[in-house]
Design goal:
The structure holds two protein chains of two kinds.
Chain A (H helix, E strand, L loop, with lengths): L9 H61 L4 H22 L2 E3 L5 E3 L6 H26 L20 H10 L8 H92 L3 E5 L5 E5 L2 H6 L9 H5 L5 H15 L17 E6 L5 E15 L2 E11 L1 H29 L2 H23 L5 H25 L2 H18 L10 H34 L5 H13 L17 H24 L4 E6 L9 H19 L3 H6 L6 E10 L3 E8 L6 H10 L5 H6 L2 H6 L21 H12 L2 E7 L3 E9 L1 H6 L1
Parallel strand pairs in A: 8-9
Antiparallel strand pairs in A: 1-2, 3-4, 3-7, 5-6, 6-7, 9-10, 10-12, 11-12
Chain B lengths: L14 E6 L3 H10 L5 E7 L2 H10 L4 E4 L8 H11 L4 E7 L3 H9 L4 E5 L3 H18 L1
Parallel strand pairs in B: 1-2, 1-3, 3-4, 4-5
Helix pairs in contact in B: 2-3, 3-4
Keywords (chain A): Kinase, Membrane, Phosphoprotein, Transferase, Transmembrane, Transmembrane helix, Two-component regulatory system
Protein name (chain A): Chemotaxis protein CheA
InterPro entries (chain A): Bact_Chemotaxis_CheA, HATPase_C_sf, HATPase_dom, HPT_dom_sf, Sig_transdc_His_kin-like_C, Sig_transdc_His_kin_Hpt_dom
Chain lengths: ~775, ~140
């Protein structure tokens, strides 16, 4: 700021300068008028002196006359007359020029003597004085002795002074002999005395009048001075008033500006959607803050609140500590504000507000901190708070839907990579497992042990699904199964259990069911796609492509050589389905056998005869029975050799129509048959029956145990068995269709499952 | 300790940069993507201990620092470097998994933070901001 840049003080400086100038002007004027005053006084004094001068001259002339009569010396008296006459003359000359002399002899101009009236009076006086001077002239020119020579004047007869001098004069009144010159002097003196007596009054009057005039003028000056003083005072008052007005106006203007600014600030703070406040070094909230804070923090009172007390009830302790550390960093000089924004722990922080209705509401708040500097040093932190709950929720939804889409794409790609049989096999197994879970969930239970048994049973099913999904790379299924497992682990860990604890599992189960349905649907769409392609390419080379897809879906991707032969095959749909199930069962048997180091040969008959409406059920049932047969029935090659059987076990699946009534599905193997003792043991172990009950069971009842939920005789839980779900499911499926299950077995020789199904029309009627 | 430290500036007037990260790939990435003429890499270090040794020999003006490193982590290293040269500018370059750890490093005297993974543009902007911030405070 430059020294001449007065800014807002310009007005004051100008006013003061003006006041000073006016003050000096008045002083000068005052001084000038006061000088005139002194001049007038001197003039009056001078004129009053002058008034006495004619009398003095007259007295001097009379002295000469008296001396002459007394015959005394006249020289000094003449000299005195000259002196007084000269003084009077000078006074006239001065007055003619309007000048007077003061006591010190300096000449002073008196303005009052310069006006016409004074001049006229002076002229009159001068005229009289001129005549006067003419009368004086012969006297003043006189020199020598006025007396006759024979009678010399007894010059100094009276050393005793006046009395002595007076005495001889009285003694010789007429005895003085004057010379002719003396007589002329005497005559001149007589004339002078006569004139003086006549003119003295006039001269004196002129002086008096002039003095009066000067006094008059002096009075005028005094009035002027008073006027100037009053005027100056008034001017000063006016200036003071102006100053006062100016300041008052400026003050008012500033007040208006600042009050308007305050109002604008208040408007902004009341309206802005962000929560705004300042934090000082003690982390106290400033008094000015935006109204939005009330809504964001659900409170009204922020007085004397510190930042940590604002947060401590709504964020976890760890977050609070990190946040306070972060704020402390911003108060330090070292960190670069812009380069630490990414680690702001309160950027999108999850907060919990108590809900008056119970529980709490979760919100997401976004805090932003900005350093406020004044005069180069950090004075405050400006904190901006936004409720970003909607944004966070939206972005989460978006992310979830993206993930879902991605997952579906992954799933599709995964499905394309999985061997179709494995996939259908898995889907069937998983479906069975989940139905099993459902039936376990529905089982009535009241005791703690029963609840625990339920959990264990469900856990085995879900775990198996998870394992298989993982093996096939079906991540989305695996994740859901894992989440289910987690819930189960949570239940296991609880000290006590009740029926309602199982409710969340129903939701989880539903989720898994839905997801598997999705996978199945996707698979269905792929099949549709295939059909669409096949339909479009019915002629020409297109058939080859369609056939390729057929092959792939049939799982014969390594049998490209047979491809060309296929399009010629006749009832394509029928054959496809039959071939599909047969092939599925063959592959399943081979896969399970190989994983259990067994050898098996499967023979299927009549599967092409399965009515459309039973295809699904028959597939599920046969898959279950074939797998069970391979795992439990067929022995290992060593065992078979010892039992004097061929190394390769035999497995037969037969579907036949039984008259009008219905169909029969037989699955049998030449394995070790059902081991009744082992079944009893397991049933007791699983808590399905008590040892006492076991002892009372006959073979038929014992065999029936394998259809109970949660039963499995496999020692280890594997993907293929050990979950105890299979036979239970078979029972459920058959029951759903209104059929029956029969079971025959001979220890060490065979097992035979005979299932009777009503004809579809009858089933519907039933 | 700073008896044998050569604090002379580079004759070309550039500022000295040290890169400290246990990942060879990151070190090379920073070196390769450095697009600031005012900076010249004078040393790279694979852990905090090596960084402190190199810094004692020749203190850098600017340091990029990883947090998780063997031997001596970034937090301890920052503490040491600031003791040797209080006006050193340190940019933490680390993953954003734990904000509290990053804040710990900043409490020890680091000046800024860049989140891994980063683009060359983000690196340049962060280093420029680091240099600018130092200019403002002085």
């Amino acid at each position: 700021m430059g020294i001449l840049d007065l800014g807002r003080y310009k007005g004051i400086v100008w006013a003061i300068t003006g006041f000073l100038v006016a003050f000096i002007a008045i002083l000068a004027l005052n001084h000038g008028i006061a000088g005139l005053f002194a001049d007038d006084v001197a003039g009056v004094k001078f004129l009053s002196q002058m008034r006495t001068q004619p009398a003095e001259i007259q007295a001097n002339a009379r002295t000469i006359t008296e001396r002459l009569q007394a015959g005394e010396k006249v020289d000094d008296a003449i000299e005195a007359l000259r002196s007084s006459a000269t003084a009077y003359d000078h006074a006239f000359i001065g007055l003619a020029g309007g000048m007077v002399s003061d006591n010190s002899g300096a000449t002073i101009g008196v303005s009052a003597l310069n006006d016409a009236e004074a001049k006229a009076m002076l002229a009159d006086g001068e005229k009289v004085w001129k005549e006067y001077k003419a009368k004086l002239d012969p006297i003043l020119r006189f020199s020598g002795s006025p007396y006759a020579a024979e009678a010399p004047a007894p010059a100094a007869p009276a050393p005793t002074g006046k009395n002595a001098a007076a005495a001889p004069a009285a003694e010789k009144p007429a005895g003085v002999q004057l010379s002719p010159r003396g007589r002329r002097l005497q005559t001149a003196l007589v004339e002078l005395n006569t004139f003086a007596a006549a003119s003295q009054a006039q001269l004196s009057q002129i002086s008096t009048k002039l003095a009066g005039q000067v006094e008059e003028s002096s009075k005028g000056n005094a009035a002027l001075l008073r006027g100037v003083q009053i005027g100056g005072l008034l001017a000063a008052l006016a200036l003071l008033g102006a100053l006062f007005f100016y300041f008052a106006r400026n003050l008012r203007k500033e007040e208006m500006v600042s009050s308007r600014a305050r109002k604008e600030t208040a408007d902004i703070l009341r309206t802005v959607n962000e929560g705004l406040f300042l934090l000082d070094k003690d982390l106290k909230l400033g008094s000015e803050r935006s109204m939005a804070l009330n809504t964001i923090f659900r409170k009204e009172d922020f007085m004397n609140l510190t930042f940590d007390s604002l947060l401590k009830d709504i964020v976890p302790e760890k977050t609070l500590k990190t946040a306070m550390d972060y704020v402390a960093l911003l108060w330090g000089e070292r960190v670069n504000e812009k380069l630490v924004k990414t680690i702001n722990p309160l950027n999108e922080v999850e907060v919990h507000f108590d809900n008056p209705a119970g529980g709490f509401d979760t919100h997401y708040l976004e805090f932003d901190f900005n350093r406020v500097k004044s005069d180069g040093s950090l004075s405050h932190l400006l904190v901006t708070v936004n409720d970003v709950t909607k944004r966070v929720m939206l972005s989460r939804e978006l992310q979830e839907s993206q993930e879902k889409a991605q997952a579906q794409l992954d799933l599709l790609l995964r499905i394309l990579h999985v061997e179709p049989d494995s996939l259908t096999g898995f889907l069937t197994d998983a479906d069975v497992s989940l139905k099993m879970v459902n039936s376990i969930l529905k089982e009535p239970a009241r005791e703690e042990t029963a609840f625990r048994a339920k959990i264990d049973g469900i856990y085995r099913q879900v775990h198996a699904v998870k394992g298989e999904a993982a093996a096939l790379g079906l991540k989305t299924v695996e994740q859901r199964a894992h989440a289910f497992e987690e819930s189960l682990s949570d239940l296991k860990g609880r000290p006590t259990l009740s029926g309602s604890d199982f409710l969340p599992l129903v939701v989880k189960l539903d989720d898994l069911f839905n997801h598997l349905a999705q996978v199945r649907e996707m698979l269905g769409r792929l099949v549709d796609l295939h059909h669409a392609i096949a339909a479009r390419r019915t002629s020409g080379g297109g058939q080859v492509e369609a056939a390729k897809v057929d092959q792939w879906l049939a799982g014969k991707h390594d049998q490209t050589m047979q491809m060309k032969a296929l399009p010629t095959q006749q009832p394509q749909q029928e054959a496809e389905a039959a071939v599909g199930l047969e092939r599925t069962l063959e592959d399943l048997a081979a896969r399970v056998a190989s994983s259990h180091s067994k050898q098996v040969s499967l023979k299927c008959t009549g599967l092409t005869e399965v009515p459309e409406s039973y295809k699904r059920a028959v597939k599920d049932i046969t898959i279950q029975l074939v797998r069970n047969a391979v795992v439990h029935g067929i022995e290992t090659p060593d065992q078979r050799v010892k039992a004097q059987k061929s190394e390769t076990g035999f497995l037969g699946v037969e579907f036949t129509q039984r008259g009008e009534e219905g169909f029969e599905l037989v699955v049998q193997d030449d394995g070790r048959g059902l081991q009744l003792d082992r079944i009893k043991e397991v049933a007791v172990e699983r808590g399905l029956i008590t040892p006492a009950q076991a002892a009372l069971l006959d073979p038929r009842q014992t065999m029936a145990l394998i259809f109970r939920p949660g039963f499995s005789t496999a020692d280890r839980v594997t993907t293929d068995a050990g979950r105890g779900a299979g036979m239970d499911l078979v029972r459920i499926l058959v029951a759903e269709l209104g059929g029956r299950v029969g079971l025959a077995s001979a220890g060490g020789r065979f097992s035979k499952f005979k299932i009777w199904l009503p004809s579809p029309s009858r089933a519907v009627a039933a | 300790m700073a008896a044998n430290a050569k604090a002379e500036p580079l004759t070309n007037g550039k500022l000295k940069l040290m890169i400290c990260d246990d990942s060879n790939i990151i070190r090379r990435k920073i070196e390769r993507e450095l697009k600031i003429d005012r900076l010249q890499v004078i040393a790279t270090a694979a852990n905090g201990k090596l960084a402190v040794e190199a810094f004692r020999k020749e203190p850098a003006d600017v340091v990029t620092m990883d947090i998780t490193m063997p031997e001596m982590d970034g937090i301890e290293c920052v503490e040491n470097l600031v003791k040797i040269k209080p006006d050193v500018l340190i940019l933490i370059i680390s993953a954003l998994s734990d904000k509290a750890t990053a804040i710990e490093a900043l409490k020890k005297g680091a000046n800024g933070f860049l989140c891994k993974p980063f683009t060359d543009r983000q690196l340049t902007e962060a280093l420029e901001e680091l240099l600018r911030g130092a200019g403002n405070d002085d």
